[in-house]
Amino acid sequence: MQNGTTNGTEYFDLKDMPHIIKALDRNQKLQPDILHLIGNTPLVKLNKIPKQEGLECDMYAKCEYLNPGGSVKDRIAYRMVLDAEEKCILKPGKSVIIEPTSGNTGIGLALAAAVKGYRCIIVLPEKMSDEKVNTLMALGAEIVRTPTEAASHDPDSNLMVARRLTKEIPDAVMLDQYNNVCNPLAHYDGTAEEILWSLDDDVDMVVIGAGTCGTVSGIGHKIKERCPKCIIVGVDPFGSILAEPEEINKSDVQMYEVEGIGYDFLPKVLDRKIIDRWVKTADKESLNMSRRLIREEGLLCGGSSGAVMWAATQAAKSLKAGQKCVVILPDNIRNYMTKFISDQWMEARGFKPVIKHDKLPWWNVVLTKNMIQPITCISHKSTTHEALEALKKSAAPVLSIVDDEGGICGVFTADNARKRLANMAASTSEDLSQFIVKKYYTVDVTQAPALGLVSRMLDISPFVVIVESVYSTRKPIGVLTSEDLLQLITDKSLNLNCS
Ligand SMILES: Cc1ncc(COP(=O)(O)O)c(C=O)c1O
Prior knowledge:
By secondary structure, the chain is α/β, with parallel strands linked by helices.
């Protein structure tokens, strides 16, 4: 072959370079479609975190986030579709797949639906990331969002809305991951077999996040059959009732940020008998551990992976040198690019200390009431028309919506109202509750927040609402935008030394 030149220089002599050639997997030369690549995920040794945590055992990560759709749930989605096709419940080109999910089962189903040609409608709570929604839409799924706070039996919950839509839409089928045996079966036949094969049927502990509980129940059953000594650890966030004993957890009810694990009901696919130990997890430890898995082990995983790994660092203390602990990493970083991967997002929630800026004299100055702009408050009983009128008269881009005690229960913004009217064909004659924004940033003056924190919040939000806690009521007292903060830090009379 003739040696060509690029920009007048000889190209590298590739043939004569030192070569590193990995053994080729002769069974995987060609794949008929992407769905055939679901499963057979790698089991990877963890080298730094176990050592730093003083653990003696060997730890391995089952990288479920490397599935084609980015999560462990590809396995069950594909399995449920194949099973329903075999039973003629799903008819290609005719049936409509509808599923309530925290997103990843939806992505798995949307992936299968895209390849196989089904219409797919995914019903998921508002809490779930926009990244998941965008992935679902890119796969051609239709999205219905439901309020995060709706309990599972509430008519507005994603479960109930999906059930109603399945009745209303012709040829709709809900595969129902909460009750479908294919959910644990996909892990019994697949994930667990792979773990046992990788470790020659010798494993001492497997640590698994609990959502529908298909993963923990399916893996648990197979591993106990083949390796009865193995301890199965279930991981459940504070705020969920999946872990036993329930009495303790009832007092825990609270909102948590980690997605995909925890529920307020017991799915049929959960088999508590198979779980030897439960570990409860909190957002801060979980999300910081996800960041460590990414930074220190190079595993580009999601938030529940951190919860599982944190739980494993607690549970595996009982294991000795030479014993083997497997942690399941359910989904990937893609779902959380604007969430825990963002430092500002972590700092705004108090999951990470606010970045230091010693050279900025205003950064650590405490926000006081004289620094804030007034915010207009409207009652939660107002109409949407009244809210729009109040917003027109307001200098700030946001109104606070207050309950009968004067506590903030949400905000009304032009941006959200426009989005609802434009993208969801909503009408201003609808109730104000349809226009309320529940995800927004606040700082509480009673906690002496620094201007630096406000600035970090403004990096990711157009405004920050200032509240003052009076007993348990959070009263809105003002607002700050980037423009307001800029005026403040350049205002000579305040002597913050910025001009
Ligand atoms: C990110 C994530 N982690 C963990 C789980 C839990 O898996 P399972 O539903 O099998 O309990 C899910 C389920 O959706 C998930 O999306």
